[in-house]
């Protein structure tokens, strides 16, 4: 996709604050600090559209971005931030589950995981929610630049086994080198067109 425009629309916690349901929407989910905001910037060729931070838990609201007047991207706050107070973690669950279960224009989710980590219980819960609400999703293993090519393939196999996915269902990506950008876009296009 050629990116002609990419702009921030609004932040929201609850449905009354979501923008109107006009365009197909893709949401990006994953652990705190995994690199969701960096992935969005990288695939849109924008350095600073979405705020990124080395401090985990920075994105705390649902942030909506309009791409080319064709698509909406939603940056979902990261889960699993150990230092977040219990009330915040509960609020996170409610905010995300409400969004996933009520948003009619949500076409699919890009589930982002760190290539160096074994998926944790929160990654599994999100997958369970997505399956429960019948929301199509693709999986991306990011920060691939932190491993050698041989280690990337080994980790891809290990993670695939853990989440009961095929090895090729895990897209290898790096926001730093931009490797895997086309594969992520191909996945997003599949989600928006609902082609298998
Ligand atoms: N080496 C490398 N670093 C990355 C990559 N993606 C993200 N980072 C770094 O990881 C840190 C977190 O990135 P963010 O994009 O802010 O992560 P996030 O998932 O949006 O974080 P929260 O919004 O806090 O949940 C930053 O220091 C990024 O520079 C990548 O592909 N490679
Ligand atoms: Mg973020």
Note down, in words, how this protein is organized.
The radius of gyration is 16 Å and the shape is globular. Helices cover 33% and strands 21% of the residues. A seven-stranded mixed beta sheet has the order 1-3-4-2-5-6-7, sandwiched between helices. A hairpin with a 3-residue loop joins strand 3 (62-67) and strand 4 (71-75). The protein starts with 5 loop residues before the first strand and ends with a helix. The chain is an alpha/beta fold. It has a single domain (6-193), classed as P-loop containing nucleotide triphosphate hydrolases (Rossmann fold, 3-Layer(aba) Sandwich). It is built from five helices and seven strands, in the order ββαββαβαβαβα. The chain binds guanosine-5'-triphosphate and magnesium ion. Residues 36-37, 58-59, 75 line the site of magnesium ion.
């Amino acid at each position: 996709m050629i990116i002609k425009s990419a702009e921030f629309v609004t932040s929201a916690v609850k449905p009354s604050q979501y923008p109107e349901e006009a365009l197909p929407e893709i949401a990006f989910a994953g652990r705190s600090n995994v690199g969701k905001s960096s992935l969005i910037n990288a695939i849109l060729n924008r350095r600073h559209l979405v705020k990124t931070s080395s401090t985990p838990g920075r994105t705390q609201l649902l942030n909506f971005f309009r791409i080319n007047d064709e698509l909406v991207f939603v940056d979902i706050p990261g889960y699993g931030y150990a230092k977040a107070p219990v009330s915040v973690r509960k609020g996170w669950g409610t905010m995300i589950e409400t969004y996933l279960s009520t948003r009619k224009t949500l076409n699919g989710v890009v589930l982002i995981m760190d290539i160096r980590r074994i998926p944790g219980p929160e990654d599994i819960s999100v997958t369970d929610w997505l399956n429960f609400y019948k929301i199509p999703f693709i999986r991306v293993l990011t920060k691939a630049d932190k491993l050698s090519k041989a280690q990337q393939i080994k980790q891809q196999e290990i993670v695939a086994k853990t989440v009961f996915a095929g090895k090729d269902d895990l897209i290898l990506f790096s926001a730093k080198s931009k490797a895997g950008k086309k594969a992520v876009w191909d996945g997003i296009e599949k989600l928006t067109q609902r082609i298998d």
